[in-house]
Structure formats: structure tokens, C-alpha cells
Write a structure and sequence with these properties.
By secondary structure, the chain is an alpha/beta fold. It has 12 helices and 9 strands. The strands form 3 sheets. The chain has a 5-stranded mixed sheet with strand order 3-4-5-7-6, sandwiched between helices. Strands 1-2 form a two-stranded antiparallel ribbon. Helix 9 crosses helix 12. The longest helix has 21 residues. The radius of gyration is 21 Å and the shape is globular.
Amino acid sequence: RAKGYVKHEGRWVKKADLEVLRLMGSAKQDTGLGDQLRLFQTDHYAVMGDLPEAQLQTLGETMERLFAEWVRLFPDDAGSDILDGKHRLFVFKKNRPYQKLVRARFERQKKAENWSTGFAKQEEKRMKLRLRETSFWDVQPVIVSGHVQMPDPFEGLKAHCVHFGANVLVTRHKRLRFTSWWLNEGLAYYLEKRVTGTIQTYNADVGGGAYADQGPVENNKANPWLDAQQWQTLLGGLARTGRDPKLDQLKSKVLYGSKNRMGAKDLAKSLSVVSYLIADDARKFAEFVADCKEGSGSELEREVSAAIKHYGSYAKIEAGWKAYALNGFRLAR
């Protein structure tokens, strides 16, 4: 046998793959798929589901491109165990195995962690939200995400997996901490575009794509902020008149919830600001993100401190971004 391999169920496998292979037993039961559950593993991802093997392989290879793009931006993570082994990515054709997985994970964690009554009610509410949205991502106790393809095309599913994979990387970077949503989502959109060539989730560059949250429809037309051909023009127009969403407001907005929730304009601005900061000085941006994760104080306090340290103020970021936007979303060199 080759070095680094161990025997598992009668065949030699990589030691690094052994944990996921053992988990396949419980995953087959949790999803109700049994032997229909397939697995494709890469260095950083374990893709499990009932999709054809070729599609699982495509997803695994796409996620590895995501990881390579992440390391390009944040080279310190190249040799780290940022994914705590492997990100477990579940993908299903239809809703039923997804729902069984979500419920099984909830019941297992509730039992293992001996939740209080109040916390259990909170987690049950979150579980029900996941059942409605047919997708989720977690960074603890293990890194896992789940997605349902139906009724969307495979390209939409692939983009959504990349987006959630980026959310995970942002949250796991340096320290297991959340950042503001504008930064997390802006980076996720940026990486989704870099890896897949488009953005299929929520807003910018979807053109009515697979996972677009189309928002209010007026006169039989979808929200123009969700149209690949319109959102930059709209954002540039707001920048010219000073009516674009401001970072000083975005920093406290949330992606989920009924109050102070980010809208399509906010998400488009988040993507655009992240794109500008990376284009202007990718190393400085990486240092800014690191300080947002590693600094002292609350999530908001860390970000404000990092913005002042690396850029002078939010106002200076806004001024640089406005020049970028008014120059056709290109740096004025």
C-alpha cells in the first residue's frame, strides 16, 4: 500500500478522505437516500448527493477553483486548515432528502449539545427557515452546506454552491467570526463572478437567473436591479446624484430578518465596493479583512477600526469608489 493510505471497507483510501467516508453511513440514513447517495471528494470538499456522478465531479472541481481564488486573495490561508478538514457539500435533485437532512441535523445537535428550552426554540425557528429556503450553510459544529436543484438549471445550482462556499470561507478566515453582511456578501458575489463567470444568486448579473430574488414586479417587469444589463447603470446613476447606499449605513444592515434588511441596491453596492477595493489594492484589502476578523471589540467596532486603519475612514472609501463608479466601474489610473 502507498504511504498515507488506510484500508476502509476492503479498499485502500487516503487518510484525509476517511472521515468523510465514515460519515457517508449516517448521511445515507439522514437523507433517506441509502445507496443512492453518491460522493465525490477533492482536497477541500466532499460533495454528496443524488445528482449524476459527472455533475458531482463538476461541482467538486468548481469548488476547488473557488478555493484557489480565495488563496489568491488571502495567501496566508494556503497552508491552513481553514475548512477544518473538508467542507461537506450536499446537493439534491428534489426537496425531500434535503428536508430530511435538515431535520436530522437539528435533532442530532439538539440531543448532543443538550440545548436549553429557549435555545432549542430559536434553533427550531432557524431550521424551519432553512426548510422554506431550500438551502443553508453552517460553520459549526462542522462545515456543511445543503442545496436543492429543482426547479433550477445546473448552472444556477453551481453558482449557489460557490456563493455559500465563499460565505463559509469569509466566516472561517483567521478566526471563526462573522463580519458585516455587506463585506461577506460583497466578497461572495465577487468570488462567484470570478469562479463561474456570472452571478446567479439574489441580484447582480443574474438577468433573471436561477436563484434570483426577483423582488417586486411592476408592469410585468422584474426588478431592474436584478438584471445583468441594468444594475451597474442604475448604481452609477445613483452615485452621480449621491443617492447610492452608503457604507456607513450598510455596515449595520442584515441579510435576513424583517428589520434593517439589505435590499438589491445594497447588495449591488456591496459587490461593487469589494470589487473596487480589490482592484485598487488587493493586499490592503486582505489586511482590512484580517483586522475585521482578528481585532478586538464587537463585529461593528472591529470593522470601523479596520476601515480607519487601512483607508482613513468610510468617507474615503466612498470617495474612491465614486470615482471608480463614475469612470465606468474602472480604476482611473
